[in-house]
Amino acid sequence: MMNWLDAVKWDRDGLLPVIAQEALSGDVLMFAFMNREALQRTVESGEAVYWSRSRQRLWHKGEESGHIQKVHEMRLDCDQDVLLLKITQLGHAPGIACHTGRHSCFFQRYENGAWVAVDPVLKDPEHIYK
Amino acid sequence: MMNWLDAVKWDRDGLLPVIAQEALSGDVLMFAFMNREALQRTVESGEAVYWSRSRQRLWHKGEESGHIQKVHEMRLDCDQDVLLLKITQLGHAPGIACHTGRHSCFFQRYENGAWVAVDPVLKDPEHIYK
Questions:
Q1: Is the separation of the CB atoms in B81 and B12 below 8 Å?
Q2: Cβ contact B28–A28 (<8 Å)
Q3: Running DSSP on this structure, what letter comes out for residue B24?
Q4: Chain A residues near residue B26 by CB distance under 8 angstroms
Q5: What pTM value is reported for the model?
Q6: Assembly ipTM
Q7: E strands within chain B?
Q8: Inter-chain CB proximity B28 and A43 less than 8 Å
């Protein structure tokens, strides 16, 4: 029987793209990557653990901000190379997933040839990251 | 003023990861890539045009299957390197986004150390791709 971690088609950098969706609202909150260890730790802890490409280390989401993601469900796509997480975004109500202090990272809407920030900052990032 | 296409941070292959979410249900249907021309054509046509990495060509989603994606909204993330599309999945009710004939590509749920296909095939792929 194939190990569930081996069933994943890791990319050339050993990473897996991950979409985090808020379970209750259906809002897509963020996009990040996991490596094998991050995925294993996510399953073990029930909280989202990513691989930070910029810092080149495991990143337990919320470790600094307190904005932990509780994982309810994980779904792999047809090609086994993208993961969808159904999560609850903890630490603030409404949930803050974005480092800019917004609910979702996808706050820039295309409008007539420009990207316009349309969602409010819920908490000043200076107060999120002390 | 920066061109909206130049504001996108294209990856080392000139691509942008794209998440397609069904506008009405909030379901995440698929994940794909766009290059610059695909994004421009998506805006011009109002229908999702991707870059097929396997076929190395533009891929107007639904060109063979009829499962066109009408685009209602496009959102860029905080790092300008991931795009979220709010779409209506046309051609079948309920919408079929996956080449396996399922509603969503994310049909394999993690259950106790295994990935289990939990969503039904809505239409036999042999009848989708004649």
A1: no
A2: yes
A3: T
A4: 25-27
A5: 0.97
A6: 0.96
A7: 16-22, 28-34, 49-52, 57-60, 69-76, 83-89, 108-110, 115-117
A8: no
